[in-house]
Write a structure and sequence with these properties.
Length: about 100
């Protein structure tokens, strides 16, 4: 499923989609909850994301973490592996969805 399809199906004001590469560099984000800059590191946003590299090593394509505390707020975070083949190079990226509890 493509990112735009996920956004269409699940997008609300309490949900943010972020795609990153294996190094944690932000490729795209929809800025719904947090202002994140493209080409910056998700690791610099919050210490929680320092270990993001390990999710690329997991065999599962979808990992859900519940009740994650970020900046005095509580979120569910989904890590969803997506494979892309742009031109002739292979790129594995991670889609992160962050859902805020109200």
């Amino acid at each position: 499923m493509a990112m735009h399809e996920l956004q269409r199906d699940y997008s609300t004001k309490d949900l943010q989609f972020i795609s990153i590469d294996k190094q944690g560099t932000i490729l795209t984000t929809d800025q719904q909850l947090f202002e994140l800059k493209k080409d910056s590191s998700i690791k610099s946003f919050h210490p929680f994301f320092e270990g993001i590299d390990t999710y690329f090593l997991e065999k599962s394509d979808h990992i859900k973490l519940e009740c994650v505390h970020l900046n005095d707020r509580v979120f569910d975070i989904d890590f969803i592996k997506m494979m892309m083949i742009p031109l002739s190079s292979f790129l594995e990226k991670e889609l992160i969805s962050i859902i805020e509890y109200n």
